[in-house]
Amino acid sequence: MGRRLEADVVLVATGRTPRTAGLGLEQLGVDCDAAGHIIVDTTMRSSDPTLFAAGDVTPHQKFTHLAGVHASTAASNAVLGLRRRVSATAPRITYTSPEVAAVGLTAATGTGMTTSTVSLEHTDRALAEDFTEGFARLVIGRRGRILGGTIVGPRAGESLGELTLAVAQKLTTRQLAAVTHAYPTFNDALWNAAITHASGGLDSPAVRTATSALAALVRRRRRGPESQPSSR
Predict the structure, then answer these.
(1) Is 84 exposed, middle or buried (0-12, 13-18, 19+ CB in 10 A)?
(2) Which of 62, 103, 189, 195 could make an S-S bridge to 118, C-beta 3.0–4.6 Å?
(3) What InterPro entries does UniProt report for this protein, alphabetically (predicted)?
């Protein structure tokens, strides 16, 4: 859990500024934003078709894992003439205690969106290790598609890969719920969030109407032909 320190002042130095001034980018016709970032498309190509850029020098989020993937894409496209594109899905982790991991949307901000949240207080692994501070939350769109989510808890980043895959591949809560997960794990919270939403769809008005109609049909068949109205 760490230890508590007392201080008079806390200095937080965050953010990065690209050092692109003086490189002659303007003479090459390379577009940059007001902060000096080189503007690139999804293939990591700049406005100069012969110049590619990746990492913190671009406006993309400043993560080591993202810079590595973007650099690989830029190099492949520049050297091999490919047209590989980078994904807009960017997982992120804040290494606090507990960890905070997220990808995609973290709140239901649009029409038809909802959330499904499971607390670590209802997760057996967390109870066994006596660490119940945290939760797993899914942001869900129409037809149950997973649009993003947040995981808070011990080693939350270790569970983020599955959520990132679900967002990138446009999976639904029903698809995620159908995959058997190992037990007991902290990742049970994420799985149960998917199960909770997927099972909730079974109590929708449309499902109730269909179930009632099916039950009526079964009762009619059980009564036999004599129960059917005769035509003359």
Answers:
(1) middle
(2) 189
(3) FAD/NAD-bd_sf, FAD/NAD-binding_dom, FAD/NAD-linked_Rdtase_dimer_sf, Pyr_nucl-diS_OxRdtase_dimer
Rounded to 5 degrees, φ, ψ at 102 are: -150, 160
Beta bridge partners of 151: 101, 136
Closest-CA residue to 156 (of 123, 191, 114, 190): 190
What six digits make up the tokens of 227? 């129960």
My answer on whether 187 and 141 are in the same domain is yes
Contacts 24+ apart (CB under 8 A), 13-20: 15/62, 16/56, 16/62, 18/56, 18/57, 20/57
Contact 153, 135 (CB under 8 A): yes
46 with 114, same domain: the answer is: no
Q: Is this prediction's pTM over 0.90?
A: no
pLDDT (tens digit per residue) in 166-225: 999 999 999 999 999 999 999 999 999 999 999 986 556 666 676 677 777 777 777 766
Is the C-alpha dihedral spanning 173, 175, 176, 177 positive or negative?
positive
Neighbours of 86 (CB within 10 A): 19
Amino acid letter, residue 84: R
Same domain, 44 and 125: no
φ and ψ of 216, to 5 deg: -65, -40
Number of domains observed in the structure of the chain: 2
